[in-house]
Every structure is written in C-alpha cells, then in structure tokens.
Amino acid sequence: MSILDRFRLDGRRLFITGGSRGLGREMALAIADAGADVVLAGRDADSLGKTADDIRALGRTAVTIQGDIGAPAECETICRQVVEEHGPIDILINNVGGRRIDIPTQEMPLEEWQSIIDLNLTSTFLCTKMIGGSMVERGSGGRVINIASISGIVCNRDIGGRSYETSKAAVIQFTRAVASDWTAAGVTVNAICPGGFMTEPNVIWAEKNPGIIGTFKDQIPAGDFGQPEDLGPLAVYLASDASRYMTGAALVIDGGYTLW
Q1: Where along the chain do its domains lie?
Q2: Which residues, at least 6 apart from 3, have a Cβ–Cβ distance to it below 8 Å?
C-alpha cells in the first residue's frame, strides 16, 4: 500500500457546515477530491449550488441543505435531517462561525454576545452531539473536525467582540473533552486553529480596517495571509486514516503568527 492510500476517502461521506464559501468550500472540495461524497449546509442557495456543482465535477455526489446553523433550533432540525435522510456520515466538519461584531465588552448587549456564542460554540455542540453521536452509536468510527481559531489561544488587537475569542477557546476545550470521551468508540475529535486567511468576510474587514489588517500582516513570519485552499490538505489529513492516532489536538495554521 502506498502511503498516499492512507489519505484516500473513497466510500465515505462528509457533512460540513458553512461549506459553500471560503474555508468551508475549500475543505469540502479537497475532501471530495480525496474520494468522499459531501453534504453541504449553508445560508446562501447560490453559493451552495456552485460548490455542489464543483464537487460533482470531481465525480462525487453532493447534497445541499439551506439553513442557518447559527440558530440553535434550525441547527437541530438540519442535523436531524442529515442523520435520517443523508447518513451515514463518516466525517463531520463544524466550520460555520465568525466574529460579525466589533463591540467593546463594556457595551456588549447580551443578545449580541449570545448570538456569537450560538454561532461558534452552540452549533459545534449540537452538530457534534447529533452527527458525531450517530458515529458513536453506529460503532464503526468516524472523524469530527472543529474549526476553532488562533483567537481561541491569543487575543486579537484593537478589535471588539470578545465573544469570538471566548467561543473559539471553548471550541478548543470542547474538542479535547469530547475526544477523551469518544476515543474508545473509534471517533477522533480534532480542531484546526486558522490564523489570518483572506476569506470573503476578512476581505471586507480589511477594506474597512486597513490599519488593523496591515499591522496583523506585518506580524506574520510567513509574510502574508493564508489562502483558503491552504486549509484543504490539513482537513484531508484529519478526515483520513492517516490521522488515526491523533485525537484531541488543536492544530495551528497561521504562517507563524502565534510564534511572536
């Protein structure tokens, strides 16, 4: 067997939240290219359709579910639909998330705080509980990949909305705790902690806050931001048999930003 065979995902099925754009799209395409079929959930029908078409062009099947994973009740409904109609799911990527707000802590309304906690953390909990839980119940193993952030390890400078840092730190610890629970069932649970990537929201943020973005870029040893496609190979690794012995890890991919 070639070492590359351990990265193949033929016959497996991925469910990814926020999978139609940015980092989610690139991870979905990479995992499809490695052989897996894909179920995509997202809010925008047009981008869902385009990503699904691109997956089908790779020779894989793609199913789209339009909905808001950041709304807990809707997230539960989507997860139930996935388990009942599109299973079995072998790989779960909890990708949906974001900062969305720039409000100082002393001015933060509770509802704004809770909305980001639900978007980043509650969605991860619910999908892990329902989709990952189905893997445990099935008894044939599986892969859960949570997209956290370096902001769960360090604090972003000159940006409000500390609900983001808090929720992403919680995602990292949730990953570790669930990994310890599910190892015996053969389900690995790992987190990816991206640094600065030029996704669509960050491009918009850069246009509005060029000074902050410029300072951020200057502090990256690699000299530039990551591109969404840089995340695909890492997602394939964590989804595949190549990562069999890795669980509870939080893997940083940030061009060295957190080194300084």
Answers
A1: 3-198+228-251
A2: none
| CATH number for the domain whose boundaries are 3-198+228-251 | 3.40.50.720
> Residue 90 corresponds to which amino acid?
D
DSSP state of 209: -
Looking at residue 38, its amino acid is: V
Task: Determine whether 164 is an active site residue.
Answer: yes
Q: Kindly report, residue by residue over 206-237, the tens digit of the pLDDT.
A: 787 787 788 888 999 999 999 999 999 999 99
What is the model's pTM?
0.96
All residues at 6 or more sequence positions from 154 whose CB lies less than 8 Å from its CB, including other chains: 258
All residue ranges of the chain with pLDDT < 50 are none
CA atoms within 13 A on the CB side of 130: 20
Task: Provide the token pair at 94.
Answer: 């909890």
List, in order, residues 6 or more apart from 213 with CB less than 8 Å away: 202, 205, 206
Token pair for 163: 């609900």
The residue behind tokens 């339009």 is 66
CB 96 within 8 A of CB 24: yes
pLDDT score recorded for residue 43? 96
Catalytic residue among 164, 237, 245, 257: 164
Which whole-number Å values give the CA distances from 245 to 13, 174, 176, in the listed order?
20, 19, 14
What Å distances lie between residue 211 and 46, 51, 208, CA to CA? 33, 33, 9
In whole angstroms, how far apart are CA 6 and each of 190, 197, 250?
18, 28, 21
Strands (E), the chain: 13-17, 37-42, 62-66, 91-94, 142-147, 187-194, 250-253
- Can you give the pLDDT at residue 200? 76
Can you name the residues that pair with 190 across neighbouring β-strands? 145
